[in-house]
């Protein structure tokens, strides 16, 4: 049973990653995200709640109403979230990476170690 919790945590992590990768490209509605990822509305709602709580995503209301009913809310990455800096050491290399949350990669450097 301990393995089931580990698998759920990994699935949650991967689903969060998939959502964030899609939102790097453009804004999506919850319906579009659930269709694109093959997730249930309930699962996606939980993911979006967690990502919103962490301030990684934000809701962007859409002004156009093409159908009857509620206005569709779109999600986007929170551009104010921050910067990620990663440094990796290997036997023969030193790797550093600077990434603004919304962008794919701003700066990357690989240096040989002496």
Oligomer designation: single chain
- What is the count of helical runs? 3
Biggest sheet statistics: 3 strands, antiparallel
Order of helices and strands: HEHHEEEEE
Assign an overall shape. elongated
* Alpha carbon gap, first and last residue: 47 Å
Rounded to the nearest angstrom, the radius of gyration is 18 Å
Main-sheet strand order equals 1-3-2
Structural class: alpha+beta
In the predicted model, the low-confidence regions spanning at least 5 consecutive residues are none
Mean pLDDT: 78
Secondary structure: number of strands: 6
Strand proportion, as a percent range, falls in 25-35%
Portion of residues in helices? 25-40%
Describe the overall structure.
The chain has helices spanning 2-25, 30-37, 41-53; strands at 28-29, 57-61, 73-77, 83-89, 93-100, 107-112. The chain is an alpha+beta fold. It has a three-stranded antiparallel β-sheet with strand order 1-3-2. Strand 4 and strand 5 form a beta hairpin. It is elongated.
Could you name the key traits of this structure?
114 residues; alpha+beta; 29% strand; elongated
């Amino acid at each position: 049973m301990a393995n089931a919790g580990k698998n759920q945590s990994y699935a949650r992590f991967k689903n969060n990653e998939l959502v964030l990768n899609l939102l790097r490209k453009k804004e999506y509605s919850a319906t579009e995200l659930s269709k694109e990822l093959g997730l249930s509305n309930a699962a996606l709602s939980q993911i979006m709640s967690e990502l919103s709580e962490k301030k990684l995503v934000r809701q962007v209301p859409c002004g156009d109403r093409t159908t009857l009913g509620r206005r569709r809310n779109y999600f986007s990455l929170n551009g104010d979230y921050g910067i990620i800096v990663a440094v990796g050491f290997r036997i023969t290399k030193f790797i550093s990476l600077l990434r603004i949350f919304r962008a794919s990669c701003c700066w990357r450097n690989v240096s040989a170690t002496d």
